[in-house]
Write a structure and sequence with these properties.
With about 550 residues, the chain is of the alpha+beta class. It has 3 domains: about 40-140, Sandwich (Immunoglobulin-like); about 175-365, Alpha/alpha barrel (Glycosyltransferase), CATH 1.50.10; about 370-540, Glycosyltransferase. It is built from 16 helices and 24 strands. The radius of gyration is 35 Å and the shape is elongated. The chain has helices spanning about 1-25, 75-80, 155-170, 190-205, 215-230, 260-275, 285-295, 335-345, 350-360, 405-425, 460-465, 475-485, 490, 515-530, 530-540, 540-550; strands at about 40-45, 45-50, 55, 60-65, 80-85, 90-95, 100-105, 115-120, 135-140, 190, 240-245, 250, 260, 315, 370, 375, 400, 440-445, 445-450, 490-495, 495, 500, 505-510, 550-554. The strands form 9 sheets. It has a 5-stranded antiparallel β-sheet, with no helix packed on it. It has a 4-stranded mixed β-sheet with strand order 3-9-8-5. The protein has a 3-stranded antiparallel β-sheet with strand order 10-11-12. The chain is about 35% helix and about 15% strand. A hairpin with a 2-residue loop joins strand 18 and strand 19.
């Protein structure tokens, strides 16, 4: 009986449910919800696509792995590749696997160019769902290692670089004064220190037959007449900048609108080399030498001691006075200033000013080792490389010794430390190597800086390695080969090598600076023949000053 009663109950329940369905609505069935897609992996040429990837092959393969099958129709409108200017780059996209892997290919991209790759979260999967988040990465393509110019001998290459760089001072010299413009965009603004380097470059131009001796003499007569009779001076010293038409001072900064003693010393260094080169008894050369002596003899070096202090001061202005208050103290590029001040016929300084002011009674000494090279003087790692160039365009550091340093060791080890730092590349800047090295003062993207191991912002100045040829001939030649043959289409231009470049965030200067171009010509020549070292070393007042300050040749 219990069994039949239980069956009746079940039957009644079924009949009740059936009646309800017939009298009510159909049950609601919710459609499946679109799934969210996650980007599981992303690679470029089998390398994980980290942001700011460097050295990417110019025909990249980008492989993307998703958590859901991708809708092919959604790809092109939601994935983009753009260059730095925002131009779209075409690509082909292929889905594979379960349509959850997307492979993108492009035609050849430009070398050393930054690109931005992005995926919008609007990328749809086959269920209509979006990507979980937007995706964006940048990458930079690799160096083009193909040779840009035909191979020539190293000797021919050095001459070619000197000749092309010489054009900055010869072809681009100011039409009125003949002096060197500060940079290739300076108009009538000329520079005293850079002009001193340019004077020495003109001697090289004559010796290398880039110009004739008579043409060189005529240009130098124009320059020296302008310096003697027209250019404004302050106690015999020249300003950093002046107008190439009028000779009037152009302020370097608010308080620097008068004499610049260091820039003056670079100019005088060049004038002395010119005087020693034009030694013939012909009236034109005799007059040239006399005019140079007049310019040199009127610089009141000792007046820049500012009331007989035991140090020289860098600046003085007629209306600002000693407002800059900048002592010239070592170690930096200014050794030549103290040497020439000691050499002066009428306004010489005593040795105490050199010892107490420049050398700071030994305070400029270092003595520590960096990359196993002992650095006798200066800041750790040596500072920017122009410290070992500007004073030594005329002054030969080889065999030069005083109680503070062996200057062959100082200049050579400074260059080797700078080279070794770039090879180590502790900041991991793309492109630094044993062929891409040299930190010095130069233009950078959006400004100017004195690069050094202590201030490394990823910019290489060609002048740094090339002006170091006398110190590091093998390392400098390796750099020259790379700059000319590999990067030459971007670096080697109308006036030689552009001022600076970065391979890390690809940028190439369009500028040329007198103070960087001049040392390239002069120091390559000193490496090849010692020409400027020999000329400057013949000057009797220079030799007397070296003895006076306690230097010896060893």
């Amino acid at each position: 009986m219990r069994y039949y009663k239980f069956s009746y109950v079940i039957l009644a329940f079924v009949l009740f449910c059936s009646a309800c369905n017939k009298s009510g609505t159909e049950p609601v069935v919710n459609p499946p919800q679109p799934k969210i897609t996650n980007l599981l992996s992303y690679k470029v040429n089998s390398t994980t696509f980290d942001n700011d990837l460097k050295g990417v092959y110019v025909k990249p393969s980008i492989v993307l792995k998703f958590s859901q099958p991708v809708a092919a129709s959604s790809v092109n409108e939601n994935i983009s590749l753009k260059d730095a200017a925002g131009n779209h780059v075409n690509f082909t996209a292929t889905l594979s696997g379960n349509d959850d892997e997307l492979v993108l290919h492009t035609s050849a991209l430009n070398y050393l160019t930054k690109y931005t790759f992005s995926i919008s979260r609007n990328l749809k999967n086959k269920s209509g769902g979006p990507l979980s988040t937007d995706f964006c990465r940048t990458f930079t393509t690799s160096i083009d290692s193909a040779r840009k110019f035909s191979k020539i001998s190293d000797d021919e290459l050095l001459t070619k670089v000197q000749q092309q760089t010489f054009k900055y001072f010869w072809d681009f010299g100011h039409p009125v004064s003949g002096l060197a413009r500060e940079r290739n965009t300076s108009g009538d603004l000329v520079t005293s220190g850079g002009s001193g380097f340019g004077l020495m470059a003109m001697i090289v131009g004559i010796e290398r037959n880039f110009i004739t001796r008579n043409d060189g003499l005529e240009r130098l007569q124009k320059i020296i007449a302008f310096l003697k009779n027209k250019a404004q001076t302050f106690h015999g010293a020249y300003p950093h900048w002046f107008n190439g038409n009028t000779g009037e001072t152009i302020a370097f900064s608010a308080n620097d609108n008068g004499a610049d003693l260091v820039e003056t010393s670079f100019l005088i260094q060049g004038l002395i080399a010119v005087r020693e080169y034009f030694k013939e008894n012909a009236p034109a050369e005799t007059t040239l030498r006399a005019d140079i002596n007049a310019i040199c003899d009127r610089v009141e070096w000792n007046w820049f001691r500012q009331n007989n202090q035991q140090v020289l001061y860098w600046h003085w202005s007629a209306d600002k006075g000693w407002a800059m208050n900048h002592k010239i103290q070592g170690w930096n590029e200014s050794l030549i200033t103290y040497l020439l001040a000691a050499s002066s016929k009428n306004f010489s300084i005593p040795k105490t000013v050199y010892d107490e002011g420049w050398a700071r009674n030994g305070g400029m000494q270092n003595g520590r080792s960096f990359y196993n090279y002992v650095l006798p003087l200066g800041e750790n790692f040596g500072g920017p490389l122009f410290f070992s160039h500007y004073s030594f365009l005329g002054l030969n550091p080889k065999n030069l010794v005083d109680k503070y340093a062996n200057y062959a060791t100082q200049t050579t080890n400074h260059a080797l430390i700078n080279y070794s730092y770039c090879v180590e590349n502790p900041k991991k800047f793309y492109g630094y190597s044993d062929s891409v090295w040299g930190l010095s003062a130069s233009d950078i993207n959006g400004g100017y800086t004195a690069s050094s191991p202590a201030n490394d912002r990823g910019y290489i100045a060609p002048t740094a390695a090339l002006s170091s040829f006398p110190y590091t001939p093998q390392q400098s030649m390796a750099a020259l080969h790379f700059y000319y043959y590999v990067l030459g289409d971007k670096l080697f231009k109308e006036y030689g090598f552009v001022d600076a470049f970065s391979l890390h965030d690809p940028w190439f200067a369009d500028s040329f600076l007198a103070i960087d171009q001049g040392p390239i010509i002069v120091m390559i020549e000193n490496y090849r023949t010692g020409l400027l070292w020999n000329l400057f070393g013949k000057a009797p007042e220079v030799n007397a000053a070296l003895g006076k300050l306690g230097f010896a040749n060893k």
